[in-house]
Amino acid sequence: MKLATFLVAACATTAVGVAAANSDRDFNPGRTSTTTPIKHVIVVVGENVSFDTLYGTYTPPRRGESVRNLLSQGIVNADGTPGPNYGRAIQYQAQNLHGEYTVNAVRTAPYERLPQPTLIGSFNPLTLQPFGPIPDPRFATLNTNGPFQITKSAPYSDPQAFGTGDPVHRFFQMWQQNGGTNRDLHGYAWTAITTGQGGGTPGVTVENPGQGAELMGFLNMATGDAPYFRALAERYALSDNYHQAMQGGTGANFFMLATGDVAVYNQNGQRAVPPANQIENPNPRVGTENFYERDGYSGGSYVNCADSRQPGVAAIRDLLDGRGVRANCEPGAYYLVNNYEPPYDTNGQPRALGANNFIYPPQQVPTIGETLSARNVSWKWYTGGRDTVDITEDPFYPLIRGLVQQQVPAGTPAAVVDALAFQQAQPLIYNTLGDPHNGSANVVNGPLRNNLRGLASFYADVAAGSLPSVSWVVPKNIDSGHPGYSVSARYEAFVQDLVGRVRANPELWRSTAIVVTTDEGGGYFDSGRIQMLDFFGDGPRIPLLVISPYARSGHVDHVYNDHASILKFIERNWRLPTVSRRSRDRLKNPVMDARSYLPVNGPAIGDLMSLFTFGDDDGRDDRRRDD
To answer: Taking burial as the number of CB atoms within 10 A of a residue's CB, which of 165, 372, 478, 492 is the most buried?
Structure first.
């Protein structure tokens, strides 16, 4: 996400126009029978927190349950201080000995002290301007070379606090940090410090990549952080082996949530070669330690991973080949592995493409929405900011309108002020990357576009009992938990409100599973092992909760899952085919090695069924307890 960039652009906008409200349309729930008592699945997706960042000090209260996290491994103590095995997570400096991209940089010596965390990606809530890659004064006395508790310096529930700096979370950087397996935990900081978010990112330079120790921070449930997320884990079911499906960031992982696949560059539906400036080159620039040649949010993001001669490809393909893992890269295809904007606006109008417009072309990659509709299973993708009232009734909107009022000439009609304010506010509130069906030509250019709605529509559907069979819910940017412009406490409050609304409708609650996760780990440190599935991932662990009368109460599930597991659950519950012949949901279910947390029959991912119990004595007592 690039909200700081949006802020700068929004304050400079002068065009007039208000996006029209989405027209209402009755949506009858699909009549297809299900294989479980679950008739409604609600998938809630926040942003950018790893499992250890949120659940690093969680302890299951139920006898017989275990969790693999920073605390259980002795990396940290319950009070947030270094534990007896802290050395496992100490960060090392490294060297690139070959002058080309590598995922196996040679470790040299431990950092004596990591650089002070920065404010990159954070913005001043009073001026709406980004702070930039400057040291975060709240962490001026931080002295660490490994994980540290964020909330000793930035209180968790302070409503006036702005988010911490934004760790790097891009594709080639993440491969370099975890080496594809995360067996070696020592390389996270070196990659971030030397490379940052790429030279195509505003504020990032060779001299100042803008990263410090922020990626090593964690919240501490043992001392009271994230109390509602802790209560949900204690009451329902938590996975400690759920992974982002792509190495890297928001756009690619949301696309995986909708397709189990990766976006590809095309012209008029035919594969083509992107503009040269949009092709990734993670080789280090001459004279630098590890600063990538072409990368960043306004830089390279496409990769032809079928061609090992392409920059960065051979290093990853060699790892895969050594393990006999298929890359899943088709000849001539340039895959989008980092964030570009979708090709349509919220009204379905195409956006201009071109070498200097970092927008991916309309996609023909099959989506889960199309799969559901083909079998008459109802669905909607609700993204905060799509409905007009999502913007105009947001607490942020009056501030934007006030700034606009100061900028326009005296006497400017109120309707013009409102139009300008709406146009400037929507990019700040609406998560464009979190609306991946908006990249599909088949969805946007047909009747399925009516399935793309905003939060106001979701709340109305819940209240009216007209929720579709499958719903995805994406909060507004400021409520997403994304570091830089949100905080985890805001996402926690969003989830609490959503769960409360669903439970307030007893008939709906009786047949619902709410799946709560994030798009990706945000580049934060995590200690969990990773399974190499193909060229694109998997990525690090992220949180996943199942909230339902049928959730295994107090259970911490160890089955290996990723974003495609949500697709597999939906498909199994409604007897659907896989999304496509390439999509990750085609992989078999895992047979787990309890010690390594990895499947012995990989590549394999689960279908989330192990987080539920559906038998006659299956926890119906949960319903009585919850009521």
So the answer is: 165
